[in-house]
UniProtKB/TrEMBL annotation:
<dbReference type="InterPro" id="IPR036291">
    <property type="entry name" value="NAD(P)-bd_dom_sf"/>
</dbReference>
<keyword id="KW-0560">Oxidoreductase</keyword>
<dbReference type="InterPro" id="IPR022893">
    <property type="entry name" value="Shikimate_DH_fam"/>
</dbReference>
<dbReference type="Pfam" id="PF08501">
    <property type="entry name" value="Shikimate_dh_N"/>
</dbReference>
<dbReference type="InterPro" id="IPR046346">
    <property type="entry name" value="Aminoacid_DH-like_N_sf"/>
</dbReference>
<keyword id="KW-0057">Aromatic amino acid biosynthesis</keyword>
<protein>
    <submittedName>
        <fullName>Shikimate dehydrogenase</fullName>
    </submittedName>
</protein>
<feature type="domain" description="Shikimate dehydrogenase substrate binding N-terminal">
    <location>
        <begin position="14"/>
        <end position="97"/>
    </location>
</feature>
<comment type="pathway">
    <text>Metabolic intermediate biosynthesis; chorismate biosynthesis; chorismate from D-erythrose 4-phosphate and phosphoenolpyruvate: step 4/7.</text>
</comment>
<keyword id="KW-0028">Amino-acid biosynthesis</keyword>
<dbReference type="InterPro" id="IPR013708">
    <property type="entry name" value="Shikimate_DH-bd_N"/>
</dbReference>
Length: 278
């Protein structure tokens, strides 16, 4: 049954550039229907140059539940958030923001929470693993810090922006978990994460060299379309456990729903699967 939009319908936006690859509108709108919430999720393509103006103007919308923030706006949006969570300040990015009663943005970063939660829900451990995270934008940095907090033995990072990767490695090192800048090579790592956009397009090359990939390793991707990227397909063929980007998204929806004030109802990955299939 199609969603009926009324004068009371609240809007949850998702901003990014590009935006066509996101799965959030279909998932959130299906979940709103399932849980009896009068709201819809709308994709909004916003350029980097227009981000600040958009965020300032969006504060005026009184039926706005908030925004999910995706590539490339997670780090830049933090500067517009008056009340970021301690986690967002630590990571240097936000992926959810909402307008407070004082008219200012509050924000948090839940990607890392969702990533680790998705692995644990599928019976995979993070503790003691040597991890490589490729891509140190907002999502990659959040995942790297979450992996460190979950007890990884080491968290190495790679980014084409070498200075940014070095900064993330240094900040993770201050938490007490060994961290360094590494090549985009599976090497001797047993938890490997592509947190870059590489893999969205059919002709994208592999973001990570898998020549030395060990069977039994965990290989994960943040890309949601396609669900099984070239990286995950190749890793699966080599006997690895793979985690598509949908698991990271689904595992954080309950936390997002709470952040946006959608209390009650069912927001679990199982509920999401049932709602989207309906």
């Amino acid at each position: 049954m199609a969603t009926q939009i009324t004068g009371s319908t609240r809007i949850l936006g998702i901003i990014g550039d590009p935006i066509r690859q996101v799965r959030a509108p279909e998932v959130w709108t299906a979940m709103f229907q399932r849980n009896g919430v009068d709201a819809v999720c709308i994709p909004m393509q916003v350029t980097a140059a227009g981000l600040n103006a958009f965020l300032e103007g969006a504060k005026a919308l009184r039926n706005f539940a908030g925004l999910i923030v995706t590539i490339p706006h997670k780090p830049a949006s933090l500067s517009q958030v008056a009340s970021p969570s301690a986690r967002a300040r630590h990571v240097g990015a936000v992926n959810v923001i909402r307008v407070q009663d004082d008219g200012q943005w509050a924000g948090d970063i839940l990607d890392g929470v969702g990533f680790v939660g998705g692995l644990k829900a599928r019976g995979q451990r993070v503790e003691g693993r040597k991890a490589l995270v490729v891509g140190t934008g907002g999502v990659g940095t959040a995942i790297a810090f979450a992996i460190a907090e979950a007890g990884a033995a080491e968290v190495a990072v790679f980014d084409m922006a070498e200075a940014r990767a070095a900064d993330v490695a240094a900040r993770i090192g201050k938490t007490g978990v060994p961290s360094r800048v590494a090549a985009a090579d599976a090497g001797d790592f047993d938890l490997i994460v592509n947190a870059s956009p590489m893999g969205m397009k059919p002709d994208d090359p592999l973001p990570i060299n898998l020549d030395r990939l060990k069977p039994g390793s965990i290989v994960a991707d943040v890309v949601v379309h396609p669900r099984m990227t070239k990286l995950l397909t190749a890793a699966h063929e080599r006997g690895c456990f793979v985690q598509p980007g949908t698991h990271m998204m689904d595992a954080q929806i309950a936390s997002m729903a709470s952040f946006f004030g959608f209390e009650g109802g069912a927001w679990s990955p199982e509920a999401i699967a049932q709602a989207v299939a309906a």
